[in-house]
């Protein structure tokens, strides 16, 4: 909550470039909510029109729970004060930010966007900042942390009301640096519109979320919208991705380019990869630094380069950044190794797009002396067009077992059939994910690597009707290894 209550007129004045009417008496506001179930006495309720529910139908409930004002897109016949705006979703981030004293203006916020790598890069930034003596927080897919203390959040980038409240809590905890994963949904739905970013970073772009965006052009446009001087002060862009190269050429931001290519401002030389991690020398305008990370794979070298460039943007040099990266162990569910003393590798990774699957298999080839065995599925109620492409990508492995992922409301077998339709040869199929993981472990021989892809850090599996059951790929892999006679 804000340290001081804010007048409803002050909130209304923050909504940019539009006509705003305040109807009713002047009131002081203590908080802002978009979910009527969360409304607290003295707060503002923002009535947002969603795909499934119109918040205007929840105004009475919000008032009953103590809302002293509401934000609506048309005047209602109610007694509480109304802020009437053309679009409540667009107005919401500014009203929420004002209610909490614009916390991002007191923080050094680094936003990371891209299809893959966001979680790893933000964790790397956190490790670098902490090692440099900066008090740090993180917001993303695996949750939030304030100076190391976990905080529960409901999505990769929280809704504007929740995000601004969270940033306010970080400011009040004397946090300096905040690393935030910025999803394409968040950009399209205006969740980060009122966040002042010190640095924004782009990792890569490949097919994902087309169930929401419709096509790749719209998906790219959402990502690209982060890279303007209205949002940030500095950009870090991976230019080996063609979409990154486009952003680098067109953005009005001061930009640091990153890549393996010689033309990049920050790049890696003398790269050494192994199953236990990666070593390289980072070359940058601020000097060179020998870097050692406990994360295998060339894509993690790329992630580290992006993090090093972001660190420079917040005043941490390459040598200090390298020292921070050396302290980072594993990132939950991101190429995370499961070691029970077995003579073969077992790795759990969040890869759930065709490009990510191709990349993780290719990287595993570089560190594996034996076969690559892949277990994966596809999430239900998400972009169905990518499923055959995921199947085709997985064929780069030596052994493929297709299984269930998070089926949600869809029939798991139908999802599997769609994956298999993109494959030239019939893979192994085991609809029960637990048995699929066990089967892959049983097949593994010395020097093989088992890749369990798609769910990464997720501790629960999503079934029909919103049912959640405990299911963590890392735990299941450990159980399968124990059943096979291996123990830590």
CATH superfamily caption of the largest domain: Mur-like, catalytic domain
Overall, the morphology is globular
- How many domains? The number is 3
The helical percent reads 25-40%
Chain-averaged pLDDT: 94
Structural class: alpha/beta
Low-confidence stretches: none
CATH architecture of the largest domain: 3-Layer(aba) Sandwich
Instruction: State the CATH class of the largest domain.
Output: Alpha Beta
Separation, N- and C-terminal Cα atoms: 45 Å
The number of distinct β-strands equals: 26
Helix tally equals: 16
How would you briefly describe this protein structure?
This protein has 488 residues and is an alpha/beta fold. The protein has 16 helices and 26 strands. The relative contact order is 0.09.
Write the layout of secondary structure elements.
Elements: E1 6-7, H1 8-13, E2 21-23, E3 28-29, E4 32-33, E5 44-46, H2 59-64, E6 69-72, E7 81-84, H3 88-99, E8 108-113, H4 118-131, E9 136-140, E10 143-146, E11 149-151, H5 160-172, E12 177-181, H6 184-188, E13 197-202, H7 210-213, H8 216-224, E14 232-238, H9 242-250, E15 254-258, E16 267-274, E17 277-284, E18 287-293, H10 298-313, H11 318-326, E19 336-337, E20 345-349, H12 354-367, E21 372-376, H13 386-394, E22 399-402, H14 412-420, E23 428-429, H15 433-443, E24 449-453, E25 460-462, E26 468-470, H16 473-483
Helix pairs in contact: 3-5, 4-10, 4-11, 10-11, 12-13, 13-14, 15-16
What would the keywords be for this entry?
single chain, 488 residues, alpha/beta, Udp-n-acetylmuramoylalanyl-d-glutamate--2,6- Diaminopimelate Ligase, Chain: A, domain 1, UDP-N-acetylmuramoyl-L-alanine:D-glutamate ligase, Protein-Tyrosine Phosphatase, Chain A, 8-stranded mixed β-sheet, 6-stranded mixed β-sheet, 16 helices, 26 strands, globular
């Amino acid at each position: 909550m804000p340290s001081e209550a804010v007048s409803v007129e002050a909130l209304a004045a923050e909504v940019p470039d539009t006509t705003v009417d305040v109807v009713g008496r002047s009131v002081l506001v203590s908080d802002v909510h978009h979910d009527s179930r969360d409304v607290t006495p003295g707060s503002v309720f923002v009535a947002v029109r969603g795909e499934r529910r119109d918040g205007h139908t929840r105004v009475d409930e919000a008032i009953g729970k103590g809302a002293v004002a509401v934000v609506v897109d048309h005047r209602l016949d109610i007694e509480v004060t109304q802020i009437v705006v053309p679009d409540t979703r667009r107005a919401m981030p500014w009203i929420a930010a004002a209610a909490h004293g614009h916390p991002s203006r007191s923080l050094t916020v680094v936003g990371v966007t891209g299809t893959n790598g966001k979680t790893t890069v933000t964790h790397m930034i956190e490790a670098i900042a902490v090692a440099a003596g900066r008090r740090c927080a993180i917001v993303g897919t695996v949750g939030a942390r304030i100076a190391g203390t976990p905080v529960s959040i409901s999505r990769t980038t929280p809704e504007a009301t929740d995000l601004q409240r969270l940033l306010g809590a970080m400011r009040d905890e004397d946090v300096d640096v905040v690393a935030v994963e910025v999803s394409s949904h968040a950009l399209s739905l205006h969740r980060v519109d009122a966040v002042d970013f010190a640095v924004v970073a782009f990792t890569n772009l490949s097919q994902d979320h087309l169930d929401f965006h419709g096509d790749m052009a719209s998906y790219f446009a959402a990502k690209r919208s982060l890279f303007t001087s209205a949002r940030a002060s500095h950009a870090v862009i991976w230019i080996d991705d063609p979409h990154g190269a486009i952003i680098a050429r067109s953005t009005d931001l001061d930009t640091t380019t990153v890549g393996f290519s010689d033309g990049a401002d920050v790049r890696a030389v003398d790269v050494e990869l192994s199953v236990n991690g990666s070593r390289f020398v980072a070359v940058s305008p601020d000097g060179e630094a020998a870097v050692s990370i406990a994360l295998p794979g060339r894509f993690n070298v790329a992630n580290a380069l992006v993090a090093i460039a972001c660190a420079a943007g917040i005043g941490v040099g390459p040598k200090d950044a390298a020292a921070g990266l050396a302290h980072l162990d594993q990132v939950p569910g991101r190429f995370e190794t499961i070691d029970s003393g077995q003579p073969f590798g077992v790795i759990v990774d969040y890869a759930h797009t065709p490009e990510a699957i191709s990349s993780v298999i290719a990287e595993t080839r570089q560190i594996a002396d034996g076969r690559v065995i892949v277990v994966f599925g596809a999430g239900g109620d998400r972009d169905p067009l990518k499923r055959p492409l995921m199947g085709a990508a997985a064929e780069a492995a030596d052994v493929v077992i297709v299984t269930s992922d998070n089926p949600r409301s869809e029939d798991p077998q139908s999802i599997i059939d769609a994956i298999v339709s993109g494959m030239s040869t019939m893979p192994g199929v085991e609809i029960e994910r637990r048995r699929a993981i066990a089967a892959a472990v049983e097949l593994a021989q010395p020097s093989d690597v088992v890749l369990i892809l798609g769910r990464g850090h997720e501790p629960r599996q999503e079934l029909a009707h919103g049912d959640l059951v405990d299911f963590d790929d890392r735990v299941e892999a450990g159980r399968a290894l124990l059943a096979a006679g291996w123990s830590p």
